Amino acid sequence: MGSQELNFPLNDVETNEETPNSIAHTRYRVHPDRAARNIAHSLKALSIDAVHGWQGSKSTVCERNEVMLFNELMSDIRFTVGPKGSAIRIPAHKYILATGSSVFFAMLYGDMAGNTNEIEIPDVEPVAFKALLRYLYCDAINLEADTVLSTLYAAKKYIVPNLARACVSFLEISMSAKNACMLLSQSWLFEEEKLTQKCWEVIDAQAALSVQAEGFVDIDLRTLTSILQRDTLNAKESIIFDAVMQWSVSECRRNGISASMENKRKVLGDAIYQLRIPAMTLQEFADGPAKSGMLTQQEIIDIFFWYSASEKPTLQFPTKARSGLTPQTCRRFLSCAYRSNQWRYRGRCDSIQFMVDKRIFLAGFGLYGSSSGAAKYVADTKLTRGQDTLAKEKISFLSDGMTKIFPVWFRHPVQCEPHIYYTASVVLDGNELSYFGQEGMSEVTSGDVVVQFQCSNESTNGTGVQGGQIPELIFYRASC
């Protein structure tokens, strides 16, 4: 059956010769009653009704394309996506794909084009391919933590750079110590240098949490070796050693071999010599590597001699401790003072809110101590974001009665994202009188980081922007 057109008979059209340039009096005007009857007749002939004529209810190209997304209607290409046994069939439209991806253009219209309308794509996950098509059809980007890496792979494979950039931005924002090591290996695969840099920032500053994360045991040997080569890891060597032992067990399983000491040493290869075992304390070495079975008898003897002998043996293991990161401080007061009737505590909270313009890793606070001689304090410190408690420590420190600021540290540095307010709080128990800050600043630049301060509703002891406690924030920044 041939195509049909909507035709308006000439007897439905009125002419006007008098004012040919007038929109209101065009030369040819459709007679409204006759035209309505003809349109209705033509629509009936084409079997179009209000239900099936969906195009009229969609005001934009994206809305109309969304109707066609995953729709067999007018589709001229079909993909079988996913590995064999779990693949699904997805219909699509060549024109839309080719206008959004140079790879699809080459596949469907260029030199790579074949005669088939059925294409298998076993290396892309169906959910990622659907995310790719949704972007090509509708300009919509809907990313999820569980599928963003597979979506990035699809965007890279079919050269859809805007979707790829969105995936990388999502990964950077959602990065933490829990996934930094795994994302590091993926960043190399996708050749994303900026993402690699962000991974190193997290791994260096939160090294202990990063190597103890569940995903650490799933990284490849190249990534493991690169991490162990870092001089800037902020972690005890004994923690790193234990994490590497766990990795070796998982690697044996991946290779289908038993996790014997011999096999664990075998899968580690030369990476074991990146461990700075002599940098441990003698007690840590004796309780850890010396008993682990991972070292040869000669290696254990040589390391023990290295600890105790004046003439030290040559070791294959690096002997210099990792330097870690150098902490930076942000001091928010220009001066400190003492008066006989303040600063008093009595269980009340000193609190201040802050916001940074770049990602930092908050390691702790600086606090003022006693203004009336040496005194011991117990500090209940807390860092919150909204209603979420990110870190909480109870720490004792001895104040010498001077104006020196005393650092109190969290167990692990806390990742603080830019342009979000966090609340630093402390409840001090100790000498009732202490020094306090004055001439406070609402904005302070420390290195390349700008920190803004504002008063906190949780502060019940008088601390605010202009004066009070918590004179310093102690944090880490990227080393590379």
Describe the protein in words.
The chain has four domains: 10-52, no CATH class; 66-174, Potassium Channel Kv1.1, Chain A; 212-308, Alpha Horseshoe (Serine Threonine Protein Phosphatase 5, Tetratricopeptide repeat), CATH 1.25.40; 328-476, Jelly Rolls (Sandwich). It contains 16 helices and 17 strands. It has a six-stranded antiparallel sheet with strand order 11-10-13-8-16-15, with no helix packed on it. Strands 6-17-9-12 form a four-stranded antiparallel sheet, with no helix packed on it. Helix 6 packs antiparallel against helix 7 (161-174). The protein starts with 12 loop residues before the first strand and ends with a strand. The protein is α+β, with helices and mostly antiparallel strands. It is 33% helix and 23% strand.
CATH architecture of the largest domain: Sandwich
Residue share in helix: 25-40%
Distance between the termini: 69 Å
- Which residues form runs of ≥5 with pLDDT under 50? 3-8, 10-16, 19-28
Round the Cα radius of gyration to an integer and report it. Answer: 34 Å
Shape: flat
Number of strands: 17
Q: Under CATH, the topology of the largest domain is which?
A: Jelly Rolls
Structural class: alpha+beta
**Helix tally?**
16
> What's the CATH C level of the largest domain?
Mainly Beta
Q: State the strand order across the main sheet.
A: 11-10-13-8-16-15
Question: How are the elements arranged and paired?
Answer:
Elements: E1 13-15, E2 28-30, H1 32-45, H2 61-68, E3 77-81, E4 88-92, H3 94-100, H4 102-108, E5 118-121, H5 126-138, H6 148-157, H7 161-174, H8 180-189, H9 193-205, H10 207-212, H11 221-228, H12 237-254, H13 261-268, H14 282-287, H15 289-292, H16 297-308, E6 328-331, E7 333-337, E8 349-356, E9 360-368, E10 375-385, E11 388-399, E12 405-416, E13 422-429, E14 436-440, E15 443-446, E16 449-455, E17 472-476
Parallel strand pairs: 3-5
Antiparallel strand pairs: 1-2, 3-4, 6-17, 7-14, 8-13, 8-16, 9-12, 9-17, 10-11, 10-13, 15-16
Helix pairs in contact: 3-4, 5-6, 6-7, 8-9, 12-13
